[in-house]
Amino acid sequence: MQETTALLQIKNLRKQYGAVEVLKGVDLSLNKGEVVSIIGSSGSGKTTLLRCVNLLEEFQHGEIVLDGEVIGYQSSIDGQRHRLKDRELSRQRSMTGMVFQSFNLFPHLNAAGNVMLGLRKVRRMGQAEAREIAEKWLDRVGLLARKDNFPSQLSGGQQQRVAIARALAMNPKLVLLDEITSALDPELVQEVLTTVKSIADDGATLLLVTHEMRFARDVSNRVVFMEQGRIIEDDTPDEIFNRPKNERLASFLKSTRN
Q1: Which is deepest, 115, 202, 215, 229, by most CB within 10 Å?
Q2: Cα–Cα distance for residue pair 41/62, rounded to 1 Å
Q3: Parallel, antiparallel, or unpaired: how do β-strands 206-209 and 174-178 relate?
Q4: How crowded is residue 182: how many other Cβ atoms within 10 Å of its Cβ?
């Protein structure tokens, strides 16, 4: 039986802000088509981990490999690590799609324009091809009828769905979702989670940070619990939520039910 090579491999990742170590030797892997949710208290390093994978943060030690390619850095003959040049970083960054909690849409562009921007600037597509792909993904997230609306004319949930369409339109190998419902009013959360679940059902590879425990349980192949910059448990949703092995995880889950 042929061994499966993970799509994403994170090896002994360490990240510091000054003297403060935020990630303390994180090891994590994802296979293609897998959905992994990261849970944990605020300040545990969840968002920083995603930002390192997407090359938005530099890290001091360790290695991130995406689809067989070491990202962010290269080693020289003398064994020293060197940050890749901006052009190469941009190419590698386009291998992932990231959806942020604050949408990050451009207010001067309509929904279609926001989705088209990366296709035009990064993929160098023509106007007609980019528009066709943008409209396909807006239709996929249920917003084709709003393609000409500007962000100010859309609800928070609709803006987040445009952001999801924008990430997926780039055809990334891996999609990163960072607390994408935390800025939404409660009544808008479900429409976004339903969209993400349908994308997961289509076979996308997702690494997501979430505080929605029921969603993590329902959509994930695995759930990872982080505490103080370390991965404490990494298991199936059933094991994590019904049979936690770590006292801190049990305490955390209890606090989310209160």
Answers
A1: 115
A2: 24
A3: parallel
A4: 13
CA distances from 244 to 27, 34, 214, 234, 237 (A): 19, 21, 15, 10, 10
pTM for the full predicted model: 0.92
Q: Report CA-CA distances (Å) from 95 to 28, 69, 98, 193.
A: 18, 10, 10, 23
Q: Is 182 helix (H, G, I), strand (E, B) or coil?
A: coil
Amino acid at 178: D
Strand pairing report for 96-99 and 81-83? unpaired
Tokens (6 digits) for 258: 């209160």
Q: What are phi and psi of 248, to 5 degrees?
A: -65, -40
What are the φ/ψ torsions at residue 120 (nearest 5 degrees)? -75, -45
CA–CA separation, 194 and 202 (whole Å): 13
Read off the pLDDT of residues 9-23 as tens digits, 9 standing for 90 and up. Answer: 999 999 999 999 999
The answer to whether residues 36 and 62 touch, using CB atoms and an 8 Å cutoff, is no
State the DSSP code for 5: P
The one-letter amino acid at 203? G
Given a contact cutoff of 8 angstroms between Cβ atoms, the answer to whether 231 and 240 are in contact is no
Give the C-alpha separation, 15 to 12, whole Å.
10
Nearest residue to 48 via CA among 58, 34, 37, 63: 58
Long-range contacts of 245-254 (CB under 8 A, 24+ apart): 249/225, 252/39, 252/40, 252/41, 252/225, 252/227, 253/213
Residue 24 DSSP SS3: strand
CA distance 249 to 26: 17
| pLDDT tens per residue across span 68-92 | 999 999 876 677 888 999 989 989 9
DSSP track, 147-166: TT--GGGS-HHHHHHHHHHH
